[in-house]
User: Fold these one by one.
Assistant:
Number 1:
Amino acid sequence: MAERSFAKEVADLRLGAGEEFRGEGILAITKALLQSGVGYVGGYQGAPISHLMDVLSDAQEVLAELGVHFETSASEAAAGAMLSASVMYPIRGAVTWKSTAGTNVAADALANLASGGVKGGALIIIGEDYGEGSSIMQERSHAFAMKSQIWLLDPRPNLESMVKAVEDGFELSEASNTPVMLEVRIRACHVHGRFIAKDNKPAPFTLAQALENPQRDTNRIVLPPAAFAQEKEKIAHRLPAAIEFIKRRRLNETFDGELGDIGIVLQGGLYNGVMRSLQQIGLADVWGGTRVPLYVMNVTHPLIDSELTAFCAGKSAVLMVEEGQPEFIETALHAILRKAGISTKIYGKGVLPVAGEYTAEVVSAGLHAFLAAEKPEALPEHIRGRNEPVQPLADEIKALASVVPPRPPGFCTGCPERPIFAAMKLVEQELGPHHVSADIGCHLFSILPPFNIGTTTMGYGLGPASASAFNVKAGKRPIAMIGDGGFWHNGLASGVGNAVFNQHDGVIMVVDNYYSSATGGQDVLSSRADNRSRSTKHPITKAVKGVGATWVRQIDRTYDVAKMRDTLKEALTTQEKGPKIIVASSECMLNKQRRVKPLFNSAVKAGRRMVRERFGVDEDVCTGDHACIRLSGCPSLSVKRSADPLKDDPVAAVDNSCVGCGNCGEVAEAAVLCPSFYRADIIHNPTAFDRGLSRIREAVIGFLQRRRDRRRVVFS
Amino acid sequence: MNAMTPIRDGDETEAGVAEPITVAVLAMGGQGGSVLVDWIVALAESQGFVAQSTSVPGVAQRTGATIYYVEMIKERPDGRDPVLALMATPGKVDIVIGAELMEAGRAMQRGLVSPDRTTLIASSHRSYAVAEKIAPGDGIADDNKVYTAAQVAAKRFVAFDMEALAERTGSAISAVMFGALAGADALPFPRESYEAAIRKVGVGVKASLRAFAAGVDGVANPAEPPPKPNMGEASPKLEPIGDAQVDALIMRARSEFPAEAHAMLAAGLSRVIDFQDVDYGREYLDMVATFLPFQRGDDVILIRAAAKYIAGAMAYDDVIRVADLKTRASRFKRVRAEVIAAPDQLVAVTEFMHPRIEEVIGTLPTRLGLWLETRPRLLRALDRVVNRGRRVRTTTVHWFLPLYLLAGLRRFRRGTLRHRHEVAHREAWLEAARTAAVSDPALATAIIELRRLVKGYSDTHARGLSKFDKALAAAMRLRTRHDAADWVRRLRDAALADEDGKTLDGAIATVATL
């Protein structure tokens, strides 16, 4: 079960020829797969391509009608290996993941796939997570395409071009027996646009047909001597076939403009941004017209030498707009022009920054510098003399720096991971700080205030492995974090198995929230939900015991902060050898609320007795020290200015978004903070018994309260 | 292809014809920014525009700051598609919507708001960031800077509390923001088309339309900082209340103290009488009055500080006080209001308490308490019995009664061990202030204000107390300096900057070099 329902998007997958599709880029790509007669799809979820996986998960019926096999792969390596179905059989397959994180994981499979080559079209859709909003290290997928000889598509970021890239990609793959990567950037994945749909096509050759008529060709298997032949074949046959196909089908686009002695060479994905920069200085319009000639590379690997030389010949200078580093394309362009004896000057890195996202401002600045040097008369009068394309900020705006707070992502309201770190904080207060190897997932938010826990992160599921060196005699043990997602991705083997085998003495904290939550709440092996098309409910404790772990503790309610604290303390101090594994389980609150809230509301509507819990703070008991917030950071636990003239500092307050998880009360209790917190159980549709009991209580309590109130001195 | 693409049959000067209209939404994850953007896209498409929206959600949707961007342009008669940008260019945004005040501030910092074209629409409510909430003191950022900046940065600035309207209309803030967008009339579309867009997207239509209407009307509000919580309203008045004993104290306070201190004295007097009894109120006035001789001219700062902090120190938070506050009828009423319980709903309240042996012996008679204090092993044994979290269900008779009886112990309070400790600590503090006051009333005021550091319970309280003691000791060492008061205030602010007192230690080290 994913974070949201995709019923409307699934309906869009059924659109037929001539109908207009309106929606997100990544969903257009999903539809394009079905229009291309894909036979199977796999992948590993992660922004920005999670929606492709989520929609197909919900579209089992559509897939069944078309005979498409879809699976949620265990990892990107598993997804990459899945493409081997296209090695011997004329079946189109597509896999997807977040890159470069996922491409790193899949690199082994991809290298083997690319070496042997493919018969059916093999498409790898990578969500290039670079720039603002990214959650991973900043690298280029381009290097993978180059080193393994996989063709790389980087289409213009509009739905029509992206859909076309999927269709072209399969054909290119088949024409050149080479897998193809389709790179889409974050914003392109989430862009809302439209295209005219085609009918879906069932795969002409099915997986069942392949199974029933198995084929093999040792020349396609990566083993010497075939491997040497494959390396030569890549250059001798597959590359020329690809170049021929790209040229013939005009996958790259040239846009002519009247300023013929200059030009811009750019990656397709950057087209809209470059056009907007040109438009702002009057060199282009919003309808695609341009005065500066453009060569748009919808294919960024391989480069088509003849097209590049033809574009650059006769120009005094071109600007190369290539995002990320190293600048593979620019370097290649220099070589291509040099070999062809063309003296056109190349601007690129230098007027543009070497590293970082090419935002609108960055591209504009680079464009100005290029034009100022090569074609100043093309710049409008008011810009020509200016060094800074952007006006400096007024002092009043600069003063905002002292008040606008940083707002990084953090744990949601009621997140079950929060009490785990609150407990770790309490242990830290008792036993001192420990080395904590963090992992990828929502739990990585622990590195930020208020928790400030976690030292390194080495990759998804690699938290425990990254603590493996700390396996020496010492006064303190290391703690390694890992989520249920990372655990099943590879952590069972790389983390737990590794620790058992090497007799590691550290603590492994498995954060089990029933889903792969950071990527959108997809099910994993240990999910507790019923899932029609997947096998779930495989406990993590069983798996770790299966690989030989002996000190294993299961905590079924992470909100029990005292128990969390005591268990962790025991793990850090026990005499027992080997890894100490704590599985801390509670359902992801974001998903739980999505699941439970509608049920709750409809039950209330139907007149059933329902109890909603939420927390509050007695503001006259709260002294405004905020110790509770330093152990929580919950969005619903905030502060407010007190109306009490005797108080200087804001008091704590719980707002109505509270979901009643209990963390703040448990923390106040476990950390011996203060008695300000209360839990209110709000009983909807109370029964006659409830009401009767309440009347008796109110009578007794009310009598006593009135008695004391009479003696109180109240100022006016 | 032609170099440029002239448009036939269109007035190029009209909004959104030759150049796209650009809209940026800065929100926090979970605020429904994507719903707002869906509405804007549906709205534009219904009015013959091509609309493109983008976002960078990813993990940012987990409560962090995030930005959505929309461009829209009127469709061409020839059906040709526009090339629209996927991210905002600073200086080129027509409408910026900040879903929270500081997010509007962030938009200005990013240069997205410009005086020649941008309508800035912001919800004036604050959702405090972690950095603002975790300071042991007051970490809340100053709103006014955002309003000042918006006057300079934006062509037009619309701000009102959209969160409050959302709550009042039982909907989400996104619908109010959509209403504000319509009310600001920054897009060339009629109001009905907005409502039609809400119906078309079809999520919680009824409530959304209500909130939308509230948003449209909200635009009429002036875009200025909301008034700060009025101290006067929460403060009692120094006027007779019809109780002979109390009225005598009130009349005494009125005649003995300068008028500018009356409001604070009323607050203090009412607090200490409420805490203990009328006699305690008399003690309070006596104690504050010891500072009257040091008043210079009309300067009441010292007296006001004394009135404020002595009351706080006298009304310390002990077990009896907490039990009293938790069992009051007014508290039961407040809880119901806070959790927004409907009249037909029942509310049961559970407290999270964790008494330690310290709290227990603090409530014992002084001699018994002192006797126990000197027996650590016995104390530890008793602590094992007492020291554990207790869920106290105050709305049941079974739990209410013991709390009620505990609150009734206040008549014995003067004889408790805790009271003895508090009195001794208070006396040392006030004596230090009085000593300083002889030569430097400003320093005396700063010393009195140090009391702000003492707050919280158990460990937090102990840490606060130790900061207070350190700062007070440093203050006394500074006594001979003419700028001692400024230094002591700096020490206080340093003490409030972090929990474990590192900043304070640094500041004290600096003071030592003076």
Number 2:
Amino acid sequence: MTDPHKEPRKSLNFRFRGADVALNGFAPRATLLDWLREEAGATGTKEGCGEGDCGACTIVLARNRDGALTHEAANACVLLLGQVDGAEVLTVEDLAEGANLHPVQQAMVDQHGSQCGFCTPGIVMSLFALYHRGEPATRASICDQLAGNLCRCTGYRPIVDAALETCLGEPADRFAIHAEARAEALAAIADEKDLFVGDDSAFFAAPASERSLAELCDRHKDAVLLGGATDVGLWITKMLRDPRKIIWLGRVAGLDRMETVAEGLDIYATTSLQRAMPRLAELHPDLGEIMRRFGSAQVRVAGTVGGNIANGSPIGDLPPALIALGASVELRHGEASRVLPLEQFFIAYGKQDRQPGEYVRRIHAPRLKANQHYRAFKVSKRFDEDISAVMSGFRFTLEGRRVIEARIAYGGMAATPKRASGAEKALVGADLDNPTSWSAAIAAIATDYSPLTDMRATSAYRSRVAANLLMKALLEVAGGHSATRIGGLHAAE
Amino acid sequence: MLRNRTAIPQVPLEKETAVVHKPLAHDSARLHVSGAATYIDDIREPAGTLHIAIGLADKAAGTLRGMTLDAVRAAKGVVAVLTAADIPGKNDIAPAFADEPLFADKEILFHNQAIFAVVARSRDEARRAARLAKIDIDEAKPAITVADALETGARVLPDYEFGRGDAPAALGRAPRRLEGLLHIGGQEHFYLEGQAAFAIPGEGREMLVHSSTQDPTEVQHIVARILAIPDAFVTVETRRMGGAFGGKESQACAWAAIAALAALVTGKPCKVRLDRDDDFALTGKRHDFRADWRVGYDDKGIVSAYDVMLNARCGCSADLSPGVVDRAMFHAANAYWLPDVKVASRRLKTNTVSNTAFRGFGGPQGMLAIERVMDAIAHERGLDPLDVRKANFYRPGGDKTPFGQTVEDMTTLPSMIEELELSSDYRARRRAIEAFNANSPYIKRGIALTPVKFGISFTLIHLNQAGALVHVYTDGSIHLNHGGTEMGQGLFTKVAQVVAEEFGVPIDFVRITATNTAKVPNASPTAASSGSDINGMAAQIGARQIKQRMVEFACAQWGVTAEEIVFRDGLVLIGNKSMSFGELAKTCRLNRVQLSAAGFYKTPVITWDRATATGRPFLYFAFGASCSEVVIDTLTGEMKVERVDILHDVGSSLNPALDIGQVEGGFVQGMGWLTTEELVFDAKGRLSTHAPATYKIPVASDVPADFRTKLHMRPNIADTIYRSKAVGEPPLMLPISVYCAILDAVHAIRPGSQPRLEAPCTPEAILNAIQSIQTH
Ligand SMILES: Cc1cc2nc3c(=O)[nH]c(=O)nc-3n(C[C@H](O)[C@H](O)[C@H](O)COP(=O)(O)OP(=O)(O)OC[C@H]3O[C@@H](n4cnc5c(N)ncnc54)[C@H](O)[C@@H]3O)c2cc1C
Ligand code: FES
Ligand code: FES
């Protein structure tokens, strides 16, 4: 913000109901849902939980990205109002044209896809996002899109059918027809200026460059850094915290890129979980499946890879998966930057190796070598959109059929994502063809961890499953003929 | 890729109908999909509307010593703080036994019980202020679980039992015996729209309350009781609920009463919409049970004696538990003839939120126990569980339920089971599964085919009544109102179909209006699956009165006989004359014919004397059957439902599209109850699964890709509206086949063993069941 040509912009700009909206007086912690329902009088979008889990508040954000107009479903309840900067906000009320329902709406009526109707606006918007993906939908892709939309009445079958009937490929609705004009309207409100709404005591800021970000971080060491708000949003709606200074990373140029480098993949912090999914899947299909089961489409679209690391959660999915892979993290403060092995970032419960003013900039995930085998498993009460009871990642380096190195990491087993040092050691020298040589390592899990009992699982279950997952990983890598999974790879035929 | 297999079938009919029996869309479908359907929180707020948040107890048991609310009162935006002392009437929201206050004033009954309410200019301000209270509770040791309550011996109501013969003696004589304990978890309703009420004060002491409730009449009574005003001063209106499932019957009263109290005190419109976490904490759920069972049978698996104790955790007060636990008992035999039988129950009191109505109303728990027993017998005998079930069905000479009602329709269910056994290819799949399991050490499959027999009628006999109000206007449009409420089940559509059929007009002539205690008084809750049975009848009776007057008038006016008058397609054919329905209505008015009527219906035949346990509590039974196949991972306990086939009995369906919705939706909800939905209370009585982040209802991918639902449509033998059958609750019990299929898969690890599989079958419960047979 020292650049005189770049005075920060003082108002939030977005498109709503076909017009430009500029807001300069709003609480930094205001959510999009409250703005819609309480300020804009748009009550079509519902609140079912206020914590990103039910999808009743689903809206669609259209943005210009990489030369195309994208449509992504997001949860308005945990999206801060400031995060819609530069986007077109589409809600359920936008879809019909007079008496003519949008194809997804009409299909929902034809298939009897609503009963009480309370989930329906959110479901319609999720299907609208799917419709605009431009690919023929499959049952699997529909279920993935709907994982964050709870319906307590219908049993989903008619909703899935409505999607199968309408999401056939190229979108042909009036939003597609007017895509060019809509993209231009968005381009017209876009700029490369920093955004700063408020004053030095309370603000919503969205720096446009790493330089501005560094300055802001320095000036306001007490500010909350905001990735996608899929955690921070809940601090506000559930814990009723009142963060007064918010620095949103979502506009920092280049901080959302992914780069293939010689030894693997660099993912920069604000890359959304959704965009990271296919690239991580390339590293290993298990990582793709972990990402598919990560939250829901809405959560993955908003949530960032950096946020999943920075929040230091002991039950986050990416840390154990990436630690096992041998990932590292780059932290940055102004021009100063340091890189550490990912496991070292997590010091204790709620405590990460991050200095005030520092931010998570980049995660490096190495590619597997020819003699390395990787597995990752997530165990939760429900397959989709659930937090892990136990999350696990394994990387075995082999010489012939012998394990010469093992990296094993679990989530949900300790106060931080943590490596199983005892099991790792005990596995060195184990023979894949001799399961008795695995036993010491499997038994070591019991001494590596003493997990807690909570609402997701008891301590005993966690310990038992953690040991069994190591066995499962070894069974699979050893390559027996027996099915070891109930879905996806290695599934029971 | 499997496509939709659920085509909407046609109802086989003897007599052609124009509107009834047709698969019409839900009346609000177009509003739902465009976000234009109005729920409580969407009602346009009059200027000055205030918002309410609830202040909660942070202990599960003890005595309230005092509270410091100064900081709450001083908080930004706060207009009033309400406690028990502000209630002009009785601090009592219990439906019958005066055992639950609106605000705790002395004894703390459960963790997060309501103690006060904050009224503020915005909802956000109210919520923030509510957290500033200092509550001083002299903490006592809470009783949380069934086991705790058995130890304290506390009950909300006396124990109750009924039976036939001498079950203990017959058990002694039986060639084979088994016994077991089955823990059956509760269930949170998770209606997508949380509890909400909006009270608007009128002149004098009048109060209009918009409430998201299944029971506007009860809400009216409670509001009047709290405010100390006559019922006639209170009007309760409910246009629609965003889901209810039993959770907005008694459980809707407190919020309406608080909103009304706030409106009375402030003189302003006041709204309360519970935050989801508060909703979980503050409202009752499905009862969890422990069923202690003993069964005696012979070598063929035929039962001679059954003795079951249903230990029901009722929570802190009686609420609707009398009916819920009775219904569990009524369903303890499900579809089976049990010669000597004893069904006993305990209504346990704990320091947890008072458990309440939930789709099935106890029936599912009673039924799950006996189905578990059928599997136990089959496993012990090495028989196919389906064969054991079939061998025990009601049969000639064995056609009486444990409560003495004769099962008049003994053939429908067995024939449905035969049909499903064939259409699901059960036998071949069982063989394939056995072959698979023999070669798969880690992944196991299981299959089960189970029956449902569910009694229809309120077992509280006086509730089996309904009223409707029908007006015909001079343009032919029809205003329809009845005591039933719309919660998504499509009741309003079905009742409108009945009325449209009566007048021979298209459905859109009928204007469906919000349930309102000022239009149809003294209504029963929309519950017990009775909605269309009783309200459909009442509306038909009302419509027929008007039609009768129109016919009589036309006969006199145009000199024809009643047989010469036909109402069809919006027209009335009178001899060789034809006019629009509106024209006839207008002519009637000019000739001073009354075009408004109140219909009233009471269910015939049913009786129930609880003291002697005799009578016929159910007008009829609704039947169903389902076959589920699952696969489990024996290393983690994870489970997936792979295929489900359903055949469900709806009589001559009023609307097959809506009925399929009830069947599929009920199945998935029941599947959640038995699989992923786990309520966890910690030792201090705190519900730790208090939000969708921790309480997991099924999502789209949990529904089997291969999901085949078929309606069984034969006219009801009972004289119901168009010979249809109730369909709200019965499908919830269909997924007992999922539980049994999981048990089958676990059992496959060690055939002949008796795994201990608790419900819900979370991965942990399944792994525990596996462990229970591995360590033997
Ligand atoms: C419905 C739902 C489902 C979920 N499911 C899963 C799941 O399956 N698996 C899982 O692991 N998690 C899950 N989560 C948690 C959450 O979505 C993830 O942890 C997500 O990655 C957080 O990213 P975010 O960008 O939204 O973080 P935010 O909420 O924006 O921030 C989280 C924390 O990280 C800090 N932060 C963010 N970015 C940076 C940065 N670059 N540098 C420094 N600090 C930063 C913030 O200050 C804050 O403290 C779920 C959440 C919800 C609401
Ligand atoms: S309201 Fe439930 S996800 Fe937003
Ligand atoms: S229709 Fe009621 S929650 Fe989906």
Number 3:
Amino acid sequence: MSDGIGARVKRKEDKRFLLGKGKYTDDIRVENQSYGAFVRSPHAHARIKGIDASAALAMDGVIAVHTGPELKADGIGDIITGWAITSKNGEAMKIGAWSPLATEKVRYVGDSVAIVIAETQALARLAAEAVEVDYEVLAPAVATGKAMNPGQPLVHDEIANNMCFDWEVGDEAKTDAGLAGAAHITEISLINNRLSPNAIEPRSAIAVYDDAEDHYTLYSTSQNPHVARLVLSAFYNVAPEHKLRVIAPDVGGGFGSKIYIYPEEITCLWASMKTGRSVRWTAERSESFMTDAHARDHVTSAKIGFDSDGKIVGFKVDTIANIGAYASLFATATPTYLYGTLLSGQYEMPAIYCNVKAVYTNTVPVDAYRGAGRPEATYVVERIMEKAAREMNMDVAELRRKNFIRAFPYQTEVLLAYDAGDFDAVLNMAQEAADVAGFPARKAEAASRGKMRGLGYSCFIEACGLAPSAAAGSLGSGVGLWESAEVRVNPVGTIEILTGAHSHGQGHETTFAQLAADRFGIPIDNVAIVHGDTDKVQFGMGTYGSRSGPVGMSAVMKALDKVEAKVKKIVAHSLEAAEDDIVIEGGEAKIAGTDKKMAWHEIGLAAYMAHNLPEGMEPGLKETSFFDPVNFSFPSGCFICEVEIDPETGVTQIVQFVAADDFGTIINPMIVEGQVHGGVTQGIGQALMEGVVYDDDGQLLTGSYMDYTMPRADDVPSYTIGHGCTPSPNNPLGLKGCGEAGAIGSPVAVINAIVDAIGTDVEMPATPSRVWAAIQSSAMPQAAE
Amino acid sequence: MTNVSMTVNGKAVNRDIPDTTLLSEFLREELRLTGTHVGCDTSQCGACVVHVDGKAVKACTALAVSLEGSAVTTVEGVANGDMHPMQTAFNEHHGLQCGFCTPGMIMTGIDMVNRYKAAGKKLDEAAIRDELEGNICRCTGYHNIVKAIEDAAAKM
């Protein structure tokens, strides 16, 4: 079957994008529209003493200016966090109130204070500048590593030491005992640099209130429109769910940043009701940098112990995680259950202990971004493994092999139980593809040109397919993390698949259709995928955490099972045969061993005509399924990065990058490889050039593409991709999820390669100046000598 | 307000617009050609690239009133029939994911192929990567965009 599972099917959705006919939120026009612009705090930390909107309101064409107390008076709720974390002393995490529009204090540069609504976008923005806010400027807490120190300014007056929680996982006593008996101990201190997600489509919202129906419609750049509707309804009290429709049309990339329900959507919806006008808002890039949830931002120290044979005996990690000014939706889960639980990596570790202190700072909220916690975990594990190998004079791959987990299922010391993997296979595949054997010759050749070459590995594992609902609930999740699907066979035999997952670049309109094409042998063009509209699609949880495959497609498979079972009953009845004898292939249902058959469109028609159905069968051919996984899925892989560094300039060139992944079953290799290319590039960005910088006053210094370096085409190489395959035993197709692996595994491979080349540690982003300085300092003679 | 006349995708257009109107705003808001995307406010991302009198221009850097009498081509206007060879190549090589940067990539790709052909220079991988300096993609890692442009160059 050319369109089936495993085929490199070209994307069905491409044409509209290529012709410029995609429909993104900002492309949509509605009746009676007006434009919103937000008045934002220029200070990292200040008390609001007064707001004077008179000058703005006097401008011709300004419709209204609204502020936080008005929302509060109308019962609009504070913004929630969706995952409850318990500190190691048993106390609940401390949550600071987050009003959609600030009422008493502003807590980061960009915090929203008021909305101005006007007849044109230009006027709304001008008028926003005319709103005068009287601020009492306060000292801010900015640096991750210092925020909990005594005497630091308090982001939320009632939260001592700016501490959201002090969480632990693993067994500290057992780990200390293991480390005490170690033959060798390696220690490392790391910073996981703060990032800005930077989907190229800025966030956008259009709110439409219909007073005749008392009904709201929100067009939104969302990865999860049903979750948005639920939260807007149940927690922000904008409208009950049946009076609120959320449409996430074409969305221009998300990477996590479009999971969350931000102040702007809430405010635009409420303002639409208040003004009787449709209200639209689209972020400028500078607003994206200021207000889209940032990522990573960990300060970590770690210690690992080995016995005399090089086997790990204990691993201890201490991390301070910056969650910004407010706890965003997944902000508390990211540095805990998506981080500490991955610290066993691909290795047998008999004792692990991890402590994470999450701190508030006067910076924009930090939340999940491609990989979310798992890149941070991988960075710690794989940096310290290579450092340890060098200290013990061992080959970096050999030390890994010595400690690989080889028997599955494997229960780690940090909650997770890995279901499947073959770490040797992907490591061998990557080594062969990277011609590791030929590296010494390449290094010597580079040295003859005055260049430094290095090879770095990353052997990583992720927990994806978020998530088994009961397990997530027991760990503090405020939602279930199943996915839904509906398969509708039309009377003419074409198929619509409605999924609760959302595609914002992942190619669902193609890969989800491949499932039906594969199952029934019908052309892929006869299958349509419907998603992103709460009025069309049953409740679903959306797309993040590499879940569309392992969870979303599994729901489709279950619904297809039900359709297939009903089809067999209808055909057996029509052709007077036994159900067990019916075979479905090539778009037909046949009685095995005979020439009796029904074409797919005849089956559809029979189901809806209902003239001759089995006794008691309901007419129609439409099935729904909800799939809740029994475990996470565990994609794993081995990345090898080779760099060449010019010691005169510190410029790092990535000369080859090999990514060998084990995603289990692959539906469309073309799309999976595209996910890896993109993820690896984001990881290279983190390793070499990306980094959000706030100054000591909490001013955002990296507020545009002039200051925040995005990877360009000439910063990255063409990639070599390999696929291993140990299918996940926990879903019908054996899928593991491929969306995040690239970003999880790549930063540390790059940094390890640089460390290998220059012989000394360097922090991310390893900019030319940092690399040059590291080379200079390590080359400098010691003072005592 | 200033009156401006230009040709957009082969059609004559005439509008009274504020002097401050950017070409990107003119195309999107006045003409409702929303294929030209705006991804930044500093002329870095390249999602808004169009052709003005045959040359690639970032539509967010040009004032519409300054283009009196110009011929503008947007992503909506490059296909002659089904799809332009550059558009076909992007589909063939999976050169797009979310699609947001894609119009700018298509217009930049066509422009670089035309320039290299006119100059008799070979457009190899290194040259394509260098030429893409002004276009940011967050999804594809550029791998397949480079392949698509290389392929289209052979077919244009």
